Amino acid sequence: MAISFQLIFPPESWREQIPALVRGGAFGVAHLVRNFYQDARELVITHLQPRATTLRGRDFGPLDDLLLLRCQPRVEGRDAERSLVAFAPSPSQLVAMLVLGYGAATGQWVGAVRGEGNVYPLSGFTFVGPKMGRVTSSQSREALDALVRWDRTRGALGEAVWRRVRNSRVAVVGAGRNGSAAALSLAMLGVSKLALVDGDREEHHNLDATIGGTAEGVGRPKVENRRRTLTAIRPDDLEIVTVPRSLPDATAVEALRGVDLIITCVDRDVARLAAARAANRWAKLHLDVGTGVFRDGAARRMGGDVRLLLPGEACVACLGGLRHVEEARAELEGPVGALRRGPRAQWDTSRAGSLVTLNQAVVNLGIQTWLELLAGVLTASCWLRLEWDGTGRPSLATGGAPLAACVVCRGGVTSLSRRPL
Ligand SMILES: [Zn+2]
After folding, report:
1. Full-model pTM
2. If you average pLDDT over residues 408-418, what whole number do you get?
């Protein structure tokens, strides 16, 4: 497989910085954070700023990874390579050049990347956020049977949104009750890839609400059982990666690199926080789902929270918060195998039970929220709470705004990238 270079634009870069460059009619330079996995080379844009066109490679550090972005009224085939030659990168620099057309040339682009002594074509770029705009140099051809299979889904979502779903790669962290429901809905919607992350094995008491759970699967890794169910539904065109490890294990974190959306369906705050850090480091969407059933005397209270979080904008630590954020942070930063500090979360132990109807309602509320973001109807991070009180009627509330400051999601992508996950 050929090496494929992709540029990843977090929300602030395309919402504010690119429009400013186009208005100024000029040239910008950004620093890049590398997210390399297998044959994929994702380059995450940070601090895109207008700069003088006379700058050359020697004006930057020898180990700097840079994006050069030029907005032009006309775009021609070799413009990116020519500009790279003119910039004269140092041998140890990795430099990407993107030429974007404006005016009559809006929608046209060319790109190239120079690194390790070679020049590579730029395969495409992604604007992370509403509509998840993905631009590739060769759009893959859609098989006819896929179009027939998802005819009704395409009718409901519209062709453009369905294609965004179809191109999506999603990690589901937690393969139990909520995670199994999330993975099933994503497979039914037609996503191209699912990474299933969970270090636990199936137990008898999971079978009440695990989609596709069977007595035969008890004792096997949960992720393997989920793979069997999903493969039966989508045998040909769904790539499934199973990772029998739990966050924050490094192997589990690694599985989050190659996706567009991370869904956490876990009880432990340390796993949520690890996912949030990865999402903000590599500019991924993060959807966190949590459910609970409680007894309050004779009354039953149940519900769940759904948080859809855009990188650089909000995260589980600052929108809705974590129950034990300091404990989670200490656990994440402590040595491997360190004892967990403090008592286990009360939230887990005071649960009255779990209900398959509640799980599916809340999980699918979360996935629908993601679909609204892909459609561009929803344009910002959001927090929803679905709750049944003692009267038996459900209510849906919208959560508040994120905290004013947050080191996890708004410490700047560059500063986070220096911190080991
Ligand atoms: Zn945050």
Report:
1. 0.79
2. 56
